[in-house]
Amino acid sequence: MVKLTPKQQVLLLLDEALATGVRGRVASILKQAKSEIEGKPAADDGFYHQAASDISDPDRPGLVFKVGKHSRRWIYRYTPKGAKSTKQLTLGHFPEMGVEQARQAWAEAKAERAGQAPVQPKAPEGPSVADLVGQYLDYAKDHRSQWRQERKILEGALWEQYGEWPAEQLAGDHIRLLLSQVQEQAQSRGGHGKRAAEHALTTYRHLFNVARGLTEPRANGVPWICARVANPCEGLVVPRAVSVERAITQSEVGQYLKALIRLPINEELKQVLMLQLALLVPLSALCRLRWQGVDWRLGRVVVEDRQGQVRTFPLTAQAVELLQNRKRKADASDWVFPALKHKERALPVSYPTQMLAAIRQHISLPDQFTSEAICRLGREWVRQDSPLPVMRLPIREEQGSELQLVAIKEQLEQWNRYLASLRQSV
Questions:
Q1: Which range of residues forms the domain containing residue 103?
Q2: Which of 56, 156, 315, 340 is most buried (most C-beta within 10 Å)?
Q3: 26 and 113 fall within a common domain
Q4: What is the mean pLDDT of residues 400-407?
Q5: Are residues 110 and 154 in the same domain?
Q6: pLDDT confidence band for 244 (50 / 70 / 90)
Q7: Distance (Å, rounded) from C-alpha 46 to C-alpha 56?
Q8: pLDDT (tens digit per residue) in 147-198
């Protein structure tokens, strides 16, 4: 048996640790240690290209390599004299700025702060993207009714990734990248992302039209950038995905119900989704449900929609039992389903929507499988065996008589019995 040297033994242990599949900062530390033992240059561009988390240069205090979701950049972090909090300065983006350039930029920034080198005047580059966004938001507060939504869009990825860029250097490819990120984020929240991307594109386009002085009412003063500069959004459209329109199937509903019961998900969200499936009402109505709106004697619920209209829907026996159990265990709150952290607020409808999307992906159901599609399928199933019209729930109080509410309740009881058999058959 060949005896390994201490150095070889350490390298072997490091290889075994990396072979376990460890990721992130731990993996970066292990790779750096291995490179130093082998005498290889550890902190080259290749090393930073593989970094999965932020890295601080131990030999250059304040030089940090920031690893974001969509971009990587070098920053100089420092604490001004007499201040209690740190500030940071972006030196450049990777890979445009490599490690050697970043170290040089760090040295220059540090020397500038220490007063060791005169500040070299920079050639005028026009306003940055961050300058444009700031000016636009001041303008939008007086002229745009949806300026808060636009602020959320503009202060997001655009500001974070391109805030320090000269505004005139932003091109169509940069906007396309931003739109794809917006769409991915919306899809991760349970949507399809197209509407979010279209809204972002409209906001970006209007920002540059205002900056060039081409809109009415015009911003005060002269245009912020040259009117001859091309709008980077011109010619861009959000591609329309080719979707195959089809109704969901009863078998898919059975698969969803079985997964919903068995998966170890948040109990409160599970109850919302179970009620939505059983009562065929929108998730938004259940999230706005208050205890004072539950009529235990008649077995029905009264809710108020966003327009202030009062609407009603009946409760099945199983739904009444679920709510009674919840009432006994619920925390003190006016809402039947309060927000997870702030009990004085209603549960945001995005929470059960995202949970439905996660279950849909987990069991490989199509994108068409949504809460609205479940309601449509349930109404169609009831319509087959009922001479009565099936109304979209919840209904306005003036729409339905007492007899109609009783009939709808019986229809929902039949639907629930069918769901129980459907779950057993898939």
A1: 56-119
A2: 315
A3: no
A4: 71
A5: no
A6: low
A7: 16
A8: 888 988 998 888 888 888 888 888 888 898 888 888 877 766 656 678 888 8
Q: Tell me whether residue 243 is in a domain.
A: no
91 and 136 inside one domain: no
Over its C-alpha atoms, the chain yields an Rg (Å, rounded) of: 29
Is 331 among the domain residues?
Answer: yes
Asked whether residue 226 carries a pLDDT value surpassing 70, the answer given is yes
Q: What is residue 370's three-state secondary structure? A: coil
For the chain, how many helices (H) and strands (E)?
16, 8
pLDDT at position 94 over 90: no
Are 420 and 319 in a shared domain?
A: yes
CATH number of the domain within which 261 lies: 1.10.443.10
pTM, entire model: 0.49
The answer, yes or no, to whether the previous bond of 394 is cis (omega within 30 of 0) is yes
The total of other beta-carbon atoms located within 10 Å of residue 47's CB is: 18
Q: What share of the chain is helix, strand, coil (3-state, %, to 5)?
A: 50, 10, 40
* Neighbouring-strand partners of residue 94: 72
